[in-house]
């Protein structure tokens, strides 16, 4: 077991910069997700760590071993592919045994270690099957067993759950987390699914355009987005255009038209500057009466109600014809508002993210 | 009734054409068993004497042996060189992949007779005429495009992440290819090798210019004996070839579900 | 980069072989074709001439052989198309259980030795061959028909040889015609033949073109069947090349003719790829 360190890693294809001077350190046994939209360079980072792509510059180190130029077979890495990449012509047993055989493990030792790996993913009875005879979830577990069996120093996951249906994905998430904690292997997990990244990881690294936007614990990523991009990418934000009306210490007030103003705890734009506001659907509370104190309270009218099980979604019109989507728990007080009902949107200033307009537009 | 189903007229024409396709085969087989030296309908009598004649004639036996050696040899060399080259092309290891692919396919585009005369002149010039190795290389040139084509097509059907998986699991490049990629492209390669084998087995236009008198292959033998007239022993040896072809096709189908690759 | 090195290692051997035993020999034909040839002496050293090419255009005999080759190619292509389309149609649109057996029956002759197939046609078409024997026996004709050593023989034999290629190309083309489009035309009131001419035929045109080009190029390049069914007298370009090299030893003429044949074949392939690309661009 070892830490994984990326040092000023970069990848260029001609003029195109896919990964830009990226540094990242993952502690021994830690679970880190690379989260970002497609094309942000996260998969390229993973493939460079695996040795499947040569970096243009920088250094990759596992523990004390520098592996930057080592071929993939000498890196002692486990990789779970998005497509699983199981060997279709080999049985499940032989798939899992593949890495062990390369290490020269044979006989009863081989048998035992394959069985152990299959037992970990609860597929002990499936050794004789071929991958095509198994369901997507089972194939996924075989892929995990295959990656784990040779006891790699670092485990890499490339969007491993994206080919599964929603229900199975939730199950596999839990299983994956349990497995990683049990084995304590340093893990780098690439995904574009924020819920997956937030729930699985010790720390999340949000990437955009080949750069790290924020590298922090899931709670920090969610509650204290460091950049415009993170604010717009995490959660389900409403996006509004506004103008800074006044500044007040670190925060200030933003006007969004129709005389509506919002207080924000943090504001990095001078008075009069154009900003983009991000209000998370789930961070807005619907009340029937105005709220006193520092909490923003905006009057509006319900336009549409849509029930989706655990939540109710409302479209609320505020100010001069601005529509805001609000997500309320279906067990809460505001679960049964009717169309045209008058409501007040309550938003804490800490949950109003305002960023310079040009910067926000980039994402 | 479905509008686009073939009607009775189309069906009858099509079946007649398919019969036309089998006609020479039927005639050759009938001639091989016919006791007269030219064919009649119905055949005058049945005999196996033409087969006996062929199988005891050292000229025919030599030709069969040379043809088989040449076909097996050139197929094996083509497989090794062709699969390696196709792999390099598929992985885009070299610049100008498209141009290089066309270059490997060029022997298919050029009329065989032109390749034949070019090699005749070249081999005479450098003193390779009559060398078996030179003849074998000539056959590699005309068979290798089939191997390259089938290898490229098969590789395109393989999810290359399986090879990457093998690499990450500790296999070096060659081992990953041998244990994972090669088994996955094998069916396509068998089909390609079969085409290569058949192409070598039946080649006249290149062989006839390059081969010396001592290297007479079976098709060359048949080709030149026909100038002396229709001899039923030619029909007999042709029938043996037909049987061999059917057998090889059957084997290939058994192994690989070959018809999917045509 | 190591990738590049591996590429050279993998691609290099075959590339060297193709350069040494294919490219260089073919290129070396060029100088030969500009040399003078003296009967009995051979190639005259240091003699450069365009005579070998001029002869192909001006000499009546050469011109006849070239034209014969080209219209043989055209004739074989047209008859392959006319005979092949119904077969392809039956394979694609006929009963599903007939599909594999019919396909195998089309492929089977293709896998058979070319020499054997041509020999079969000799047994059928010669003066004492099956066809003439049958016609004489039944009293339909008195003297044998001349079916070999002429255009008829070559047309029949070569149509047979190249028909499977055409059928396979047309099968692929027909498979790409969406049934819904035909059904749509039918529901819009088209008759069956109108659906065929207005929908099916245009949609299979790319397959028809590539099949035709293939058959045409193969036919004009063929040596074995023309030689076996045409004999030493009824010549096409390939058999003439053969004779000039093997019998007359007139290599300069032979290589000039070889180059002309190659240029015709490559020009046709090039032109057809241009046409199909334009079509693809329109679609």
From TrEMBL, chain A:
Functional description taken from the UniProt entry: Part of the ABC transporter complex PotABCD involved in spermidine/putrescine import. Responsible for energy coupling to the transport system.
Annotated keywords: ATP-binding, Cell membrane, Membrane, Nucleotide-binding, Translocase, Transport
Subunit and interaction comment: The complex is composed of two ATP-binding proteins (PotA), two transmembrane proteins (PotB and PotC) and a solute-binding protein (PotD).
GO molecular-function terms, A-Z: ABC-type polyamine transporter activity; ATP binding; ATP hydrolysis activity
Keyword hit for Transport: yes
Membrane topology, from the record: Peripheral membrane protein
UniProt keyword Metal-binding present: no
Pfam families: ABC_tran, TOBE_2
Gene Ontology CC: ATP-binding cassette (ABC) transporter complex
Family the UniProt entry places it in: Belongs to the ABC transporter superfamily. Spermidine/putrescine importer (TC 3.A.1.11.1) family.
Name listed for the protein in its UniProt record: Spermidine/putrescine import ATP-binding protein PotA
Catalytic activity of the protein: ATP + H2O + polyamine-[polyamine-binding protein]Side 1 = ADP + phosphate + polyamineSide 2 + [polyamine-binding protein]Side 1
Enzyme Commission number, as recorded: 7.6.2.11
Listed SMART domains: AAA
Compartments where located: Cell inner membrane
Automatic annotation (TrEMBL), chain B:
Protein family (similarity comment): Belongs to the binding-protein-dependent transport system permease family.
Domain spans labelled ABC transmembrane type-1: 64-252
PROSITE patterns for the chain: ABC_TM1
CDD domains xrefs: TM_PBP2 (cd06261)
Pfam families recorded: BPD_transp_1
Keyword line: Cell inner membrane, Cell membrane, Membrane, Transmembrane, Transmembrane helix, Transport
PANTHER family for the chain: INNER MEMBRANE ABC TRANSPORTER PERMEASE PROTEIN YDCV
Biological process annotations from GO: transmembrane transport
Bilayer-crossing regions: 12-33, 66-90, 102-124, 130-148, 188-213, 233-252
Species the sequence originates in: Pseudaminobacter soli
Lineage: Bacteria, Pseudomonadati, Pseudomonadota, Alphaproteobacteria, Hyphomicrobiales
Protein name: ABC transporter permease
Automatic annotation (TrEMBL), chain C:
Transmembrane segments: 7-30, 70-92, 104-124, 154-174, 195-224, 254-272
CDD domains: TM_PBP2 (cd06261)
InterPro entries documented for this protein: MetI-like, MetI-like_sf
Alphabetical UniProt keywords: Cell membrane, Membrane, Transmembrane, Transmembrane helix, Transport
Residue ranges annotated for the ABC transmembrane type-1 domain, each copy included: 66-272
CC per GO annotation: plasma membrane
Superkingdom in the source lineage: Bacteria
A Pfam family assignment: BPD_transp_1
Gene3D superfamilies: MetI-like
Recorded topology in the membrane: Multi-pass membrane protein
Major subcellular site: membrane
GO BP terms, alphabetized: transmembrane transport
Cellular location(s): Cell membrane
Family: Belongs to the binding-protein-dependent transport system permease family. CysTW subfamily.
Name by which UniProt lists this protein: ABC transporter permease
């Amino acid at each position: 077991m070892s830490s994984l360190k990326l040092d000023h890693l970069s990848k260029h294809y001609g003029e195109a910069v896919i990964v830009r001077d990226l540094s990242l350190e993952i502690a021994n046994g830690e679970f880190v997700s690379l989260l970002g939209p497609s094309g942000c360079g996260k998969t390229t980072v993973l493939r460079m760590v695996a040795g499947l792509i040569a970096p243009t510059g920088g250094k990759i180190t596992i523990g004390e071993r520098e592996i930057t130029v080592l071929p993939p077979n000498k890196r002692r890495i486990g990789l779970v592919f998005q497509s699983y990449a199981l060997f279709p012509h080999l049985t499940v047993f032989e798939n899992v045994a593949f890495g062990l055989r390369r290490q020269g493990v044979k006989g009863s030792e081989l048998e035992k270690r394959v069985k152990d790996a299959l037992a970990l993913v609860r597929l002990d009875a499936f050794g004789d099957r071929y991958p095509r005879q198994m369901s997507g979830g089972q194939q996924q577990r075989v892929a995990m067993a295959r990656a784990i069996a040779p006891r790699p120093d670092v485990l890499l996951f490339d969007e491993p759950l994206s080919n599964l249906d929603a229900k199975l994905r939730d199950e596999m998430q839990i299983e994956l987390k349990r497995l990683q904690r049990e084995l304590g292997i340093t893990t780098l997990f690439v995904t574009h699914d924020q819920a997956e990244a937030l729930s699985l990881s010790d720390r999340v690294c949000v990437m955009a355009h080949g750069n790290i936007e924020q590298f922090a614990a899931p709670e920090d990523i969610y509650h204290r987005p460091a950049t415009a991009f993170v604010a717009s990418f995490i959660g389900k934000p409403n996006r509004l255009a506004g103008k800074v009306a006044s500044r007040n210490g670190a925060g200030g007030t933003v006007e969004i038209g129709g005389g509506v103003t919002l207080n924000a705890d943090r504001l990095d734009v001078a008075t009069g500057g154009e900003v983009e506001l991000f209000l998370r659907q789930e961070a807005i509370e619907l009340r029937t009466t105005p709220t006193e104190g520092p909490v923003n309270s905006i009057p509006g009218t319900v336009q549409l109600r849509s029930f989706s099980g655990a939540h109710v979604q409302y479209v609320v019109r505020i100010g001069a014809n601005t529509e805001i989507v609000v997500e309320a728990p279906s067990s809460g007080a505001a679960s049964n508002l009717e169309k045209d009902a008058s409501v007040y949107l309550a938003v804490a200033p800490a949950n109003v993210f305002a960023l310079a307009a040009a910067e926000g537009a980039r994402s | 009734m479905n509008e686009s189903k073939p009607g009775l007229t189309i069906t009858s024409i099509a079946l007649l054409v398919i019969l036309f396709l089998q006609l020479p085969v039927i005639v050759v087989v009938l001639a091989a068993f016919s006791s007269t030296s030219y064919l009649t309908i119905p055949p005058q009598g049945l005999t196996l004497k033409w087969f006996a004649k062929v199988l005891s004639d050292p000229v025919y036996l030599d030709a069969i042996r040379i043809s088989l050696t040449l076909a097996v040899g050139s197929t094996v060399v083509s497989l090794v060189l062709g699969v390696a080259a196709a792999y390099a092309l598929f992985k885009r290891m070299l610049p100008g992949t498209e141009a290089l692919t066309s270059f490997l396919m060029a022997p298919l585009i050029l009329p065989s007779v032109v390749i034949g005369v070019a090699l005749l002149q070249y081999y005479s010039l450098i003193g390779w005429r009559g060398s078996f190795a030179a003849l074998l290389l000539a056959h590699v040139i005309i068979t290798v495009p089939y191997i390259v084509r089938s290898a490229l097509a098969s590789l395109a059907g393989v999810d290359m992440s399986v090879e990457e998986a093998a690499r990450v699991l500790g296999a070096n490049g060659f081992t990953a290819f041998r244990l994972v990629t090669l088994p996955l492209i094998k069916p396509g390669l068998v089909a390609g090798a079969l085409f290569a084998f058949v192409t070598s087995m039946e080649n006249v236009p290149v062989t006839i210019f390059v081969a010396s008198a001592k290297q007479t292959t079976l098709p060359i033998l048949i080709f030149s004996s026909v100038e002396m007239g229709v001899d039923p022993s030619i029909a007999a040896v042709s029938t043996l070839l037909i049987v061999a072809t059917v057998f090889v096709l059957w084997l290939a189908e058994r192994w690989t579900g070959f018809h999917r690759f045509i | 980069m190591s990738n590049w090195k591996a590429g050279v290692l993998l691609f290099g051997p075959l590339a060297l072989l193709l350069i040494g035993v294919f490219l260089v020999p073919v290129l070396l034909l060029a100088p030969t074709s500009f040399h003078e040839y003296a009967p009995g002496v051979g190639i005259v050293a240091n003699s450069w001439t365009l005579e070998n090419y001029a002869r192909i255009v001006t000499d009546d005999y050469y011109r006849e052989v070239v034209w014969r080759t080209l219209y043989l190619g055209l004739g074989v292509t047209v008859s392959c198309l006319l005979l092949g389309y119904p077969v392809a149609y039956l394979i694609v649109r006929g009963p599903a259980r007939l599909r594999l057996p019919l396909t195998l029956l089309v492929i089977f002759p293709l896998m058979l030795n070319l020499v054997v197939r041509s020999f079969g046609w000799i047994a059928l078409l010669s003066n004492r061959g099956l066809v003439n024997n049958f016609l004489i026996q039944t009293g339909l004709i008195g003297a044998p028909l001349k079916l070999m050593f002429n255009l008829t023989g070559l047309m029949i034999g070569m149509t047979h040889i190249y028909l499977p290629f055409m059928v396979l190309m047309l099968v692929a083309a027909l498979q790409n015609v969406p049934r819904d489009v035909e059904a749509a035309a039918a529901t819009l009131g088209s008759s069956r033949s109108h659906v065929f001419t207005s929908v099916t035929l245009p949609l299979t045109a790319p397959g028809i073109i590539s099949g035709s080009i293939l058959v045409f190029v193969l036919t004009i390049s063929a040596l074995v069947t023309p030689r076996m069914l045409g004999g030493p007298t009824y010549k096409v370009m390939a058999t003439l090349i053969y004779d000039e090299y093997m019998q007359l030893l007139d290599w300069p003429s032979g290589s000039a003719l070889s180059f002309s044949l190659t240029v015709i074949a490559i020009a046709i392939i090039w032109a057809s790829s241009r046409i199909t690309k334009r079509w693809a661009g329109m679609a």
